[in-house]
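Input sequence (370 aa), recorded before submission:
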Amino acid sequence: MEKILITGGAGFIGSHLCDELIEHGYSVRVLDSLIAQVHGPGAGRPDYLNPQVELVVGDVRDKAKVLEALEGIDAVYHFAARVGVGQSMYEVNEYTDVNNRGTAVLLEALIEKPVKRLVVASSMSIYGEGLYSTVGGSVVEDAARPLSQLRNSNWELELDGELLTPIPTPETKKPCLASVYALSKYDQEVMSLICGKAYNIPTVALRFFNVYGTRQALSNPYTGVLAIFASRYLNDKAPIIFEDGNQKRDFVSVKDVAVACRLALEVEEAAYEVFNIGSGNSYTVWDIAQKLSSTMGVDHLQPIATGEYRVGDIRHCFGDISKAREILGFKPSVALEDGLEELAMWLKDQVAVDSVEQAKSELAARGLTV
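Predicted structure, token format:
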């Protein structure tokens, strides 16, 4: 496999994957619509996009443009998607149209122009709440928090009055779809695997956890949490955190994610499998905010926990990545401290439009915060 197409490849993760693939001898073409929310109004080719990349500007929902982009392609990474749990809950049509229908258009095009491998970007959001354990060691898959509990600012999960302990979530946990975004990512994943099997296109789904690093869209208030925090810090404002900040997540460097994506292309045994891609570690959101403030030298800006709940959010979810280690040979190599140092160095030359409070108001106006 020599020529690779990445839909959505001019974005954060896709552009890093371009570098990884080119470094390993692949030729790369990107199909990207360069939407304003990610790239800014009237954006052209991003400066950070590898000069060896062939860029085709177009929408994944445009079948003619997709067929054009597929000409001469050996394998496809499907990253094109609208991203944002909160925004998906009121831009329902947009998220469903881009993520679900866009994937359907791509798959129909692949039926006409089959490739040797399809790798689709899925998300940890499909799990909803992660896996939990009782004091006695029983595993709980379907833990949830009723609205009455959230209204009392009782954030942790319980079962029969017993506090549950979050544990690493494996791929075997059944999905629990808590947002339109999560539903759309699961739809992308399942549609791709169904069509891949039907048309003999080896397909791999990668469930990304919280990816961070350089090139994130700092002015997009619905992007990854570290980029949102960075945007606040760059504007001399404290980050805003829902609930109490003690919710746990897995934060993984985009450079490690790019390596995992390449392995999903190259490892034959990965075909028709689903993999968690994370660091294998967990951190509270509050700790992450403080670590970034320290690294950026803005310790005076302490996070603000609002004590509010955002519809579609979950409490704890961090990944069990043993399957990716065993089958893909995936070994995360970027320590959080090193990744944050690199991010902070990049941020020194960046300007961010802080739209966090506007986004928060959008949610509140629709009753999506409690």
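Checked by second reader. The radius of gyration is 20 Å.
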